Amino acid sequence: QVQLQESGPGLVKPSETLSLTCTVSGYSISSGYYWGWLRQPPGRGLEWIGSFYLSGNTYYNPSLKSRVTISVDTSKNQFSLRLSSVTAADTAVYYCARPRGDDNMHDPFEIWGRGTMVTVSS
Amino acid sequence: DIVMTQSPDSLTVSLGEKATINCKSTQSVLYYSNNKSYLAWYQQKPGQPPKLLIYWASTRESGVPDRFSGSGSGTDFTLTISSLQAEDVAVYYCQQYYSPPFTFGPGTKVDVK
After folding, report:
1. Given CB atoms, is A113 within the 8 Å cutoff of chain B?
2. pLDDT tens digits, one per residue of A2-18
3. Contact status, residue B37 vs residue B43, Cβ threshold 8 Å
């Protein structure tokens, strides 16, 4: 059974960098799939942040592209999100997720982590 | 970006009655080469991540009760819950995965009367 779990600081100061890690169990990231990050501000809807494939293809939401980096550590079966220069608008529950199809980014997200709340505040 | 809208914002339905949620996209999400609409529906309960219900606009995810059905093509889509159960109380989102950035509708909250 594939499981994803987000981890990282729950509180980040304005202008600093948010860093989160998604640990995958039950499946090797090296075997395929586009892995993604999404977020949901409190009481609001969902926003796709970006997705990557191990071959090197990485896609970011243009609205965040200048501030976002997604990276992978296959030795730990983890992938990470870094979001720089955060503001209160970046306060949200952050999810990592995997789509249905194993080699296609154009697929809905089937497996989700439970999410981690990140608050941006001084 | 493709903008997704949903209607209504919320609805209250009696147990056993039908609930209908609409979703529109600002441009077609139909890929003509495979005749598939790149549209999914999710259910989200408080404190939980979204759960995939429907993909390709009308294909039910494994394990999803058959009271959930999706229809539509191109730019106009519908999620129908044929007989609302207490456990269906949730917020429902549509999402296009046709063109990045992948975008979601604002959600429709479904409650029981």
Report:
1. yes
2. 999 999 999 999 999 99
3. no
